[in-house]
Design brief:
single chain; alpha+beta; Glucose Permease (Domain IIA); 11-stranded antiparallel β-sheet; 3-stranded mixed β-sheet; 5 helices; globular
């Protein structure tokens, strides 16, 4: 190959590499959002938190069951889910099963089973004592024993409830206990799950805020009280008084926080729970 041809090939390769890296870093540019986007990093916001005292038609919603505590974020099963802020783990519980065949809602037909049924639930406190709820996770690093050995998933949802608790599954991880149950914004908290494979809406996580009443405005306190009174008119709330008596706040309705696409040092900004994997691979965060 002549010198000119080699030089031309070298210039071509340099240009191609420059274009590739420009495209990569353009895709992972730091961004902030005044509202939770309805679509981000391959995830889509779906059915809202039905128990929330605030509603918005901004994101597309489907009918949810009356005691739905979290907004559905549809994303492929097994997708990493990250801590949206610095927060302390209050509890972890695993209600997962190999199937759920009981008729739960009007939408479900009798005899139709959800397989599998992922329902690892995590509850956190943030620094101002609001609670942050995640559920329908496939797993969590905080309790490595969930779904293993003696704690293998039962066949049917609701069976062998004792297997749901960390103390029967080897306890919490050394890492989380060493950190006094605190996780930092951007830490991995688990992987997204599914509630069956019969519908394209099955693969998702659900999350919401339960606001400390002291952090609510007078108007919001009134809205919360009205919602709680309305909830307790439902028959199921007679047996779920703790669930129904909370001030739920759907993530997509909150206007008091700023969202970001990867973690910054700003404690007031909340991280999107599903992030751009290419960025984290680039900095060695994900192997």
């Amino acid at each position: 190959m002549g010198l000119m041809k080699k030089l031309s090939l070298y210039i071509f390769l340099v240009l191609m590499f420059s274009l590739f890296t420009s495209y990569l870093f353009a895709e992972i540019k730091y961004k902030t959002y005044k509202k939770l986007p309805c679509s981000f990093n391959g995830a889509k916001v779906g059915t809202s938190t039905i128990l929330s005292f605030k509603k918005t038609p901004r994101c597309k919603n489907w009918t949810g069951y009356p005691l739905k505590r979290g907004t559905s974020v549809m994303v492929k099963r097994g997708t990493p889910v990250f801590a949206i802020t610095d927060m302390k783990l209050e509890y972890a519980i695993d209600r997962s099963a190999k199937q759920r065949c009981r008729k739960i809602t009007k939408v479900q037909k009798k005899g139709v089973c959800d397989r599998p049924f992922d329902d690892v639930e995590l509850m956190f406190f943030d620094k101002v004592q609001n609670q942050i709820l995640f559920y329908h996770l496939m797993d969590t690093p905080f309790v490595p024993g969930f779904g293993k050995g003696e704690c293998e998933r039962p066949l049917e949802f609701g069976m062998q409830r004792y297997k749901s608790y960390p103390e029967y599954c080897g306890g919490y991880s050394k890492e989380i206990t060493k950190n006094n149950f605190w996780v930092k914004k951007g830490d991995l908290i688990g992987h997204s799950g599914t509630t069956g494979n019969n519908s394209k809406y099955d693969a998702h996580i659900a999350f919401s805020f339960i606001i400390n009443k002291e952090n609510l405005s007078d108007k919001e306190k009134k809205l919360c009280d009205l919602k709680v009174k309305k909830n307790f008119k439902l028959k199921k709330c007679k047996y779920n008084s703790i669930t129904c008596g909370q001030c739920y706040y759907a993530p997509e309705t909150r206007k008091d926080i700023v969202w970001e696409n990867f973690p910054s040092d700003n404690p007031g900004y909340y991280l999107l729970p599903i992030i751009n994997k290419k960025y984290y691979k680039e900095i060695g965060y994900l192997k």
